[in-house]
Amino acid sequence: MPAPPKPKPKPDGDGVDCSKAKCIALTFDDGPVPSTSTLLPILRKHHVHATFFMLGNSVAAHPDIAAAVAKDGHAIGNHTMTHPQLTKLSNDEIASELDRAAAQIEKATGKRPTLVRPPYGAQNARVLSVLRSRGESSILWSVDTLDWKHRNPATTIKRALASSKPGGIILMHDIHPTSVQAVEGVITGLKERGFTFVTVDQLHR
Ligand code: NI
């Protein structure tokens, strides 16, 4: 008889009630890229599910990495096709940016995203009404690590630990190896402070 498959360890955030637990969501923007593949085993080791806001162009370049993110059980959101400021586009152009990215994500992962992170956090009432009419929601962040700017793992960890509160959403970028290097410290530091990692959709449930 073949050995039964090893049960997968449950992610820490599974079944957690965020109205009672200290929940926090890690989010990664602008991938997937090769450094995303370095990040996945770190998240797996710590049983953490994160949320990845992917660029359609990056998914088209690395569909296998997008598929690996989905296979590990992370949530995937839409970060548009080409990273424009949505506030500067017409309604039709906004829809096209989101549709093209969603098509790439769906092709790679089998799932169409409904969470959207507008590039630069640039949104207004019109952008939000376009999203609403599409059945999509905008997800910004409450903790900005500025990882893309300083590219310093210690600073990323310090910023994440200093400003995280229950229900918080931490912004990082998996396209920078220095950000990936910070992830282990962010996770262990916040777990020591009693936080449970969940995906963004779990926060709002
Ligand atoms: Ni971005």
From TrEMBL:
Residue ranges occupied by any NodB homology domain in the UniProt entry: 22-198
GO biological process terms, alphabetically, are: carbohydrate metabolic process
Q: Which GO terms describe its cellular component?
A: membrane
Does the keyword field hold NAD? Answer: no
Q: Which PROSITE patterns match?
A: NODB (PS51677)
Does the UniProt entry include the keyword 4Fe-4S?
no
GO molecular-function term, one example from the UniProt record: metal ion binding
Q: Which UniProt keywords apply?
A: Hydrolase, Metal-binding
Q: Which InterPro entries match?
A: Glyco_hydro/deAcase_b/a-brl (IPR011330), NODB_dom (IPR002509), Polysacc_deacetylase_ArnD (IPR050248)
Q: Which domain of life is it from?
A: Bacteria
Entry's Pfam families? Polysacc_deac_1
Q: What is this protein called?
A: NodB homology domain-containing protein
Organism per entry? Bowdeniella nasicola
Lineage runs:
Bacteria, Bacillati, Actinomycetota, Actinomycetes, Actinomycetales
